Structure formats: C-alpha cells, structure tokens
Amino acid sequence: MNHLSMQELHDLGYRIMKTYIHDNFWTQRRRKGCITVETTWTDVGDFDSQQIQIDNGECRSLKPREIVKLDKILNK
User: Fold this and answer.
1) What is the pTM of this model?
2) What secondary structure letter does DSSP report for 2?
3) What is the distance between the alpha carbons of residues 33 and 29, in angstroms, rounded to a whole number?
4) Taking the domain 6-74, which CATH number applies?
5) Could you tell me which of 60, 62, 40, 42 has the C-alpha nearest to residue 52?
6) Distance (Å, whole) CA 49 – CA 11
7) What is the pLDDT of residues 3-30, one digit of tens each?
8) CA atoms of 1 and 24, how far apart (whole Å)
9) What would the DSSP string read from start to end of 10-72?
10) 30 burial type by CB count under 10 A (0-12 exposed, 13-18 middle, 19+ buried)
C-alpha cells in the first residue's frame, strides 16, 4: 500500500477534522499537532491521493539530528 490507511492514521492519533465530497471524489482531512493529512478517494471508493501539510506557525526547538532527519524527508 502506498498510503496510510484511515485506521493507521487513527492509531497514530490523527483525528478527523472534515470529510467532504467534491466533483467525483471524497476527501477526509485528519490532523495531529502541526500535521494535516488529506486522503482522497474516487466516488466508487478507489484510493486517489494522500497529501500532507505542515503548518509553519508552530516554532519548536529541535536537536541537530532531528533537523537532519526532517531535511531528508521534506527537501527531497
């Protein structure tokens, strides 16, 4: 599977913020801390996409190794 399932997101602590229908798709938005995950399916239930958004409004103190890890993930 090339995305996290709704159960996996739930188990990680992501909570549903909004579910909505648009065009021939439906999307569920989940949030945990500064990360929002949107998962979209076709109107027949086939997976379409999963995207994340990281809010830039939260400042955090990070250790150097944490910055290196984030850089590798976010700046591919």
Assistant:
1) 0.79
2) -
3) 13
4) 3.30.67
5) 40
6) 20
7) 999 999 999 999 999 999 999 999 999 9
8) 22
9) HHTT-EEEEEEEETTEEEEEEEETTEEEEEEEETTS-EEEEEEEE-SS------HHHHHHHHH
10) buried
